[in-house]
Design brief:
CATH architecture of the largest domain: 2-Layer Sandwich
Distance between the termini: 66 Å
Helix content: 40-55%
Number of strands: 15
Structural class: alpha+beta
CATH superfamily of the largest domain: Nonribosomal peptide synthetase, condensation domain
Number of helices: 14
Strand order of the largest sheet: 5-6-7-2-13-12
Radius of gyration: 23 Å
Shape: globular
């Protein structure tokens, strides 16, 4: 049926991410999850696991469809020519290859664009690491998965033991795709857009009705709620014209990866010692490192503008069971000059808590819809006004396995997407694994920044000892 073959229209945040990534090379939007395995997994078994994964996560079998005006209205539809072997590959590092070679390959994989006429993912097994280890890299377009969704995908792919679990649920049958004409896409998009307008109108009428009802019973509260929502939207949609850092000003189309690893118990203990969250300690560690980096350059930043994903999973109407984005992005200045690590922890807590309560965070998708009326270059310039992105994603607390090999580490390697630096942390099996991406024009001394960030995390782990 045509209604099935045209698939689903990307909406809200997913669509905005796809559009900006397609329209500006500095907004390249890839997520690479790099799992380090204690041995080389069985290739045939790994391939079967990936085939199974695509049956449980249909987005991995969906290709983009484009409307009559190119990338303006992307849809995802089952690819009638889906070929697993196009998305999966393996090779060995040259003799004597090591960690730096692996990170260089991960960078090359991340910087390479997707084939935008096929499903937007790739998987690569790299063998030949020291000590018999191997690396499995899963690359996803950010429009089909945020950090939490990537973890959910991994939990479907990985297993709890070296042997296959005979009690695993059987996957559904493979979906069948079909060729789709541009006329079919046009009709489907028109119907979806009309439905979207109708939904928006119903939402506005419902809001107006509730406001009118509240106005009759409590006019002061109705006025206060209206002003609060308008103010929240204004704050969320504020346009900035430049980064706050005096040295992290340039932006380019390439970035470099780095990794850090710390005992998760140390970071958690530091947060608990101040009755704060792990995310508060994580952000303080990053900001402490950024302080040191500015000092290294004989500079100082009063504040840095930070992007922080706010998870909407668990909210009514979220898509937590899907491989999709369920986040809003809070963007705010964080004071760093003269602040101690403890003060940065407390400040992070207050700022993130404040933004979690902002009404605009629950309007992320509608606000993203409005972005379709904004030219991509303008959206990209707004993104480049951010100094740093931080993201903290909880992972499995116990060991997991891939095709017989145990995962001993996992690093989230995320494109900078306009910011100068992206720092993402995933916790797994008692450890915190941190992936760092740095824009090559903004930071030409990546090794020095990694040294300063490492010192920042070390400073956080010492917080509990100061009590």
């Amino acid at each position: 049926m045509v209604t099935e073959s045209v698939g689903k229209q990307l909406r809200g945040w997913d669509a905005a991410t796809f559009r900006t990534a397609s329209g500006d090379p500095t907004m390249r939007s890839t997520v690479v999850a790099m799992a380090i395995l204690d041995s080389a997994p069985d290739w045939n078994r790994l391939r079967s696991r990936l085939e199974r994964l695509t049956l449980f996560v249909p987005e991995l079998r969906m290709r983009p469809l484009y409307g009559t005006v190119g990338f303006s209205v992307p849809r995802l539809s089952i690819d009638p020519d889906f070929d697993l072997d196009f998305h999966v590959r393996r090779y060995r590092l040259p003799e004597g290859g090591g960690w730096n070679d692996l990170l260089s390959d991960a960078r090359r994989i991340s910087l390479g664009d997707f084939d935008h006429n096929r499903p937007l993912w790739e998987a690569t097994l790299i063998e030949g690491l020291p000590n018999g280890h191997s690396a499995f890299l899963l690359k996803l377009h950010h429009s089909i998965a945020d950090g939490a969704a990537t973890v959910m995908i991994a939990l479907t792919l990985f297993e709890l033991g070296a042997d296959t679990n005979p009690d695993e649920p059987l996957p559904p049958d493979a979906p069948v795709g079909a060729d789709v004409s541009w006329q079919d896409v046009f009709v489907a998009n028109s119907m979806d857009n009309l439905a979207r307008i109708a939904d928006g109108a119903r939402g506005l009428l419902g809001t107006a009705f509730r406001l009118a009802k509240t106005s009759l019973t409590d006019p002061a509260m109705a006025y206060e709620k209206t002003v609060e929502t308008i103010g929240s939207i204004t704050r969320a949609a504020t346009v900035y014209d430049a980064p706050l850092s005096p040295i992290l000003t340039a932006r380019g189309t390439t970035y470099t990866f780095g990794t850090l690893e710390f005992p998760f118990a140390d970071i958690r203990a530091a947060a608990k010692s101040r009755d704060l969250s792990v995310n508060d300690a994580f952000m303080a560690a990053v900001m402490t490192g950024m302080q040191a980096y500015h000092t290294r350059h004989g500079s100082s930043a009063e504040s840095l503008r930070v992007n922080v994903p706010i998870s909407l999973r668990g909210d009514a109407g979220d898509r937590s069971g899907q491989a999709a984005n369920a986040v809003a992005i809070a963007r705010f200045p964080m004071q760093v000059a003269g602040k101690s690590t403890v003060e940065l922890m407390q400040q992070a807590h207050e700022l993130v808590d404040k933004w979690k309560r902002e009404p605009a965070m629950r309007l992320a998708d509608p606000l993203a819809e409005v972005s379709w009326f904004v030219p991509v270059p303008m959206l990209a310039s707004v993104a480049r006004a951010s100094d740093i992105t931080t993201s903290n994603v909880p992972g499995p607390p116990i060991p997991i396995y891939l095709a017989g090999s145990r995962m001993i580490a996992v690093y989230p390697l995320v494109a900078t997407i306009g910011a100068a630096v992206n720092v993402t942390m995933v916790t797994y099996d008692s450890k915190a694994f941190i992936g760092v991406s740095t824009d090559d024009r903004a930071i030409d001394d990546h090794v020095d920044l990694m040294h300063d960030l490492r010192a920042g995390f070390h400073a956080v782990t010492l917080v509990g000892d100061t009590l």
